[in-house]
Amino acid sequence: MDVKTRDMMGGLAKGLKVIEAFSAERPRLSIAEASQLTGYDRATVRRCLLTLSELGYCAYDGKFFTVTPRVLRLGTGCLAAMPLPKIVQPWLDDLSEQTGQSTSVSILDESDIVYVARAAQRRVMSISLMPGSRLPAYCTSMGRVMLSALPVEQAEDLLSLKPLVARTAKTVTDIETLKGELLRIRDRGYACIDQEVEIGLRSLAVPLFGPRGQVVAALNIGLAASEEPMQAVADRYIPSLLKVQKELTGISG
Amino acid sequence: MDVKTRDMMGGLAKGLKVIEAFSAERPRLSIAEASQLTGYDRATVRRCLLTLSELGYCAYDGKFFTVTPRVLRLGTGCLAAMPLPKIVQPWLDDLSEQTGQSTSVSILDESDIVYVARAAQRRVMSISLMPGSRLPAYCTSMGRVMLSALPVEQAEDLLSLKPLVARTAKTVTDIETLKGELLRIRDRGYACIDQEVEIGLRSLAVPLFGPRGQVVAALNIGLAASEEPMQAVADRYIPSLLKVQKELTGISG
DNA sequence: GTCTCTTTGTACGATTATCGCACAAAACGA
DNA sequence: TCGTTTTGTGCGATAATCGTACAAAGAGAC
């Protein structure tokens, strides 16, 4: 019998998949919907949801299930364990104050970037980002920086996981173009995004290195779009980012 | 057979408890430690952890398990489903800018408050708070505001869940004193905290009401401690808080 | 109002995955 | 080196899970 199946607890795996079925678009699920989303039998999903309700992770109004704030507890172990946010926050605050722009640090989780710390200035993005928020890696400066640090095949695998959606008219969705850009980023040491996530938003990012030189996170700065050439903007801000990068080199994820 | 036991999936419940065993103090767990923390048999915990590793929620270095950022996905459904952060963030930003102080919104999860949105100014707290962060309700202004909205017995139950620790010399830990304070807060409509969480930190909070008049969250402002009487500080800032409270009345959790 | 379609709740037997013990191996510390 | 603790693995008994089946309850349609 295979190692992967011998010590697998099916009930646990199913339950977690059910929790993940609750998304931004579908915050309220009926049993039938959850069954459809997860692909599990209705009876199975029902047992999962009732169990989760009994444990306080879900609430049931007789018709729909919703996840309660208690599920956030499951993430605390990770967030609290991570020394990264605590360490980088002062640097983010400084950088944000110096430049007058929003700064963030994120890590890579498969094909998503996850914000772990942030110092916000005036709102330029329409969506509100906070630690725990996710954005796809392919169209963000931090995502591209982290993807560029991976072996090419691995980056390609991650890019293939989900369809590359054009969030704006400027979003690069051609995988070959993206691969070329990743190589350029690796050489150059930083990534630029010009309104590929959202119209009006530009962004610059550099990698943050761990104790063994590996890329553990990315640091970025968000800017309002302007007539100014992207390169001029990069020339102005990248030195500050590289300075923080240098001071934070050696941190552990 | 009881409803509570008939449709309970033991494996799921155990796995979730194992995930919660990873805390800020214990981010890395061996099988034996996790077994001790959860009270489950070592073999059971091992199966849970191997399952979680296989699913990507845990990482195993051959000796210790750690939770990966993937567990944060479990919370996204809740955070994204919650309209609260998106709605309140602009108000928080405004309030923070006007007053020059940090502002936050949190909700109650059992005996903890959970930050769901925050606009930070200069750092006055030593600990860095972010959405998803938790603090005990009994010693925070937002926690007391939300506790004061509950029926007395229910508030008492929540206060009894965990020991009331004196975080500073000023922390109120006597449950009768706390109950009296909750009544005062309910009458007055706001809560004041003077260095009970941390020396040097004062805080004011008001409740936020949902569409049916129920308390769904709390709004606060954090201030550096000073010689000024707490009442004078409250008189200065509470009107601004109440203004935001009024504008946000009717929001859903 | 009735009819149909979908969804939910419940029951139950077969199956299978889970449990916890027990033992071997390995790591650890003295 | 030895003793202790922890980890990995095998296995039989057990109990929990699975999915089907059916009744009941809504939800629409007409």
In short:
The first copy, chain A, is α+β, with helices and mostly antiparallel strands.
Element layout with pairings:
The structure is a homodimer of 253-residue chains.
Chain A: H1 3-6, H2 10-21, E1 28-29, H3 31-38, H4 42-55, E2 58-60, E3 65-67, H5 73-81, H6 83-99, E4 102-109, E5 112-119, E6 134-136, H7 141-148, H8 152-161, H9 175-188, E7 191-194, E8 201-209, E9 215-224, H10 230-248
Antiparallel strand pairs in A: 1-3, 2-3, 4-5, 4-9, 5-6, 7-8, 8-9
Helix pairs in contact in A: 2-3, 2-4, 3-4, 6-10, 7-9
Chain A binds a DNA duplex (30 and 30 nucleotides) through residues 6, 8-11, 30-32, 41-44, 46-47, 63.
Could you characterize the architecture of this molecule?
The structure is a homodimer of 253-residue chains. With 253 residues, chain A is of the alpha+beta class. Chain A folds into two domains: 3-73, Orthogonal Bundle (Arc Repressor Mutant, subunit A), CATH 1.10.10.10; 82-248, GAF domain (Beta-Lactamase, 2-Layer Sandwich), CATH 3.30.450. Chain A is 45% helix and 20% strand. A six-stranded antiparallel β-sheet of chain A has the order 6-5-4-9-8-7, sandwiched between helices. Chain A has a three-stranded antiparallel β-sheet with strand order 1-3-2. The mean pLDDT of chain A is 88. The interface between A and B is large, with 66 and 66 residues. The structure holds a DNA duplex (30 and 30 nucleotides). Chains A, B: It holds the Pfam family HTH_IclR. Chains A, B: This is IclR family pca regulon transcriptional regulator. Chains A, B: Residues 70-253 form the IclR-ED domain. Chains A, B: One of its GO terms (biological process) is positive regulation of DNA-templated transcription.
